[in-house]
């Protein structure tokens, strides 16, 4: 069997939008309102932070859309950074996707899937005698092992599905997304119209805490919201498989992010109308509760618990699938250039990067064993905003480097919108170091492992090049 070397351009605008939204809507829409309420103590400020995070995400998406329209190719930012900066920075980005950003996203989503399944069908305890085993007092690999094992099995299953080809994975995302939209629509409709809903009281002046809302508290709350918005840039990884990529990627990103902002504002308004901020704070303190489950339970009782748990299962299944589908394409692009493990450059008969999917699967499964949901998500957001800022800065650099290039899309509000995005990324980076030092340190350590790996891959490149030259001389 000959190994295919080129990807198949089979995704139109509709499937681009599906992949964008499918990569965004995951666990955050159900879980993150509680930590935000605990940080801000105000329903109004919670919604403001959801909106602010959505606007900042949209600013980043619009900037990304200009760069994607100009440079669209398989690998997303990895391909862009080679032209904006250099190969070393592009590699550090791709390595960061592999070590922390995308693989940890897959791990955390699959973890919430397993938690939701456990709430419907209790999973039998496993390896309880090893639950206190720890590595450096930070990682507890065998704690909640029954949940972690289900998460690992989900990752393995979806890896196998996506080895069947990009359209198989994209169509699965479409079907799941329709179910998710229906479920969220039911929550909003029945939640806001139920007798338990009290929008007036939830958003009244008397509901606001006397505690002042600090700049740092807003940023910390937005860290939670950004996890819910995380994933819109993943469509860039599939640039080599999108029809008319330089137009469809910018359009798909913009339509997808705007759609998600509207959904998030509606559904979080519903949660806040059903549950007072004080109750959401208690949910966060409990650690093992999901805000959406408690909100739906308040007007539908046990039946509501089952309904929302099944919806979370479907949503996290879909988002995990979309993330598995898109992420491995960057490692495929890197491997083709000798900057990743060589076998990751091979395609199978379905023209899917099967080995890249396998490498991703193995590391994501190890990350499931490494941490908790919130630890993983804070680590992801810290890392990803370094690169959101870098892509946005690229808008300014490319306008100077390539002033006459044809741009299918130009970012609205230039230069103000890109400047706001760059400054915000820098502020969030610094704030995370102050308020989440452990997660920031772990994330940075994983990113920096890319430095020795870059030189190792480059050394292998030189050896292969020398061996190839010698072979030509001998022939």
Automatic annotation (TrEMBL):
Places the protein is found: Membrane
Pfam families in alphabetical order: AA_permease_2 (PF13520)
Keywords for this protein: Membrane, Transmembrane, Transmembrane helix
Keyword Transmembrane on entry: yes
Transmembrane segments: 12-30, 45-67, 88-113, 133-158, 170-193, 213-240, 252-272, 306-335, 356-373, 379-399, 411-434, 440-457
Main location: membrane
Species name: Pontibacter indicus
Cellular component annotations (GO), alphabetically ordered: membrane
Single GO MF descriptor: L-amino acid transmembrane transporter activity
PANTHER family recorded: AMINO ACID TRANSPORTER, SOBREMESA, ISOFORM B
Lineage of producing organism: Bacteria, Pseudomonadati, Bacteroidota, Cytophagia, Cytophagales
Chain segments annotated as coiled-coil in the UniProt record: none
Name of the protein described by the UniProt record: Amino acid/polyamine/organocation transporter, APC superfamily
Membrane protein topology class: Multi-pass membrane protein
